[in-house]
Design goal:
The chain is mainly alpha-helical and about 290 residues long. It folds into two domains: about 80 residues, no CATH class; about 190 residues, no CATH class. Helix content is about 60%, strand content about 5%. The protein contains 13 helices and three strands; from the N terminus they run ααααβββααααααααα. α6 crosses α10 and α7 packs across α8.
């Protein structure tokens, strides 16, 4: 943070007091444009309030919902929301407006947006075998929201962009060609296409196991999902985006294996919710 603020201070000096760098400035500066650019940098650096986080999440979730229509079965939607909200209630951010949605899409994927918005595909649900597995997936996505993984990545990209835009003000005033920079509105969409840092995914896996267990589900739901994904790797185009934006299932399993050797076996008698899940998935056409 100190480094970023120092960069802003240096930029401010060069923009508003060009004589401090060059006693005979050779360009005319648009102060209004410079001020607006610096305000953009400030906004990129200052953390968002929770209200701003929620509003941003709503916008991103709306974009995600444009990928496919919501599944029409209200009972399934309510079921997924009930499980997800129960797990979220056991987290350190229970008061977010947690909302879970199932897309009528055969791809195998799940997405989390800031503020507590989580989207799953029908294709993923049909690959799961129990409510404990669903809980593991939802808890993983909840982990992203708790740790603000997407929000932090977007703010980091936004800050970089804002600094580039501010620097381009100086270049414009000198008559140089303006740099092409990404607009903040597109950062979120791009992020979901390239994925998070793998350490963020590993952290959410660890959180997912703990949260699901805390909510009363057996802890091996998420590892079971990863084993299922591992078994279909290379044989399903529906998995392409997930594989491109996440670490390999084997790497994620190896990470969890080290964690779960520390005493999770004592929770083996917790609920799997298998029969309840199968009955619900029959509504989606699962045999």
């Amino acid at each position: 943070m100190k480094t970023k603020l120092s960069l802003v201070a240096i930029l401010l000096s060069s923009l508003l007091f060009p004589g401090a760098i060059n006693a005979e400035p050779q360009f005319k500066l648009d102060l209004n444009k410079a001020f607006n650019a610096l305000q953009s940098v400030k906004k990129a650096i200052v953390p968002l309030t929770e209200e701003e986080e929620i509003l941003l999440g709503q916008s991103i979730a709306s974009n995600l919902l444009s990928l496919a229509p919501l599944h029409a079965d209200v009972t399934v939607q309510n079921y997924v929301n009930k499980v997800g909200r129960w797990i979220a209630s056991r987290s350190e951010r229970p008061d977010l407006p947690w909302t879970f949605a199932v897309l009528d899409n055969d791809d195998i994927n799940a997405f989390a947006a800031p503020g507590g918005y989580i989207v799953l595909t029908k294709g993923l649900l049909l690959k799961l075998n129990s409510e404990a597995e669903l809980a593991g997936v939802l808890a993983h996505e909840i982990g992203h929201v708790l740790k603000k993984h997407h929000l932090n990545a977007m703010q980091k990209a936004h800050a970089k962009t804002a600094l580039q835009e501010s620097a381009s003000v100086v270049m414009d005033a000198r008559g140089n060609k303006n740099q092409d920079v990404l607009k903040y509105a597109a950062i979120g969409t791009e992020l979901y296409g390239k994925g998070l840092d793998k350490e963020d995914e590993f952290e959410s896996d660890r959180i997912g196991v703990v949260l699901a267990t805390r909510a009363g589900y057996e802890p091996y739901g998420l590892p079971a999902v990863l084993q299922t994904l591992q078994s279909v790797v290379g044989g399903s185009a529906a998995l392409q985006l997930l594989l491109e934006t996440h670490p390999k299932p084997t790497d994620r399993l190896n990470q969890l294996d080290r964690l779960m050797q520390t005493g999770f076996d004592q929770y083996e008698q917790l609920s799997s919710g298998q029969e309840r899940y199968k009955a619900m998935m029959a509504r989606l056409g699962k045999n």
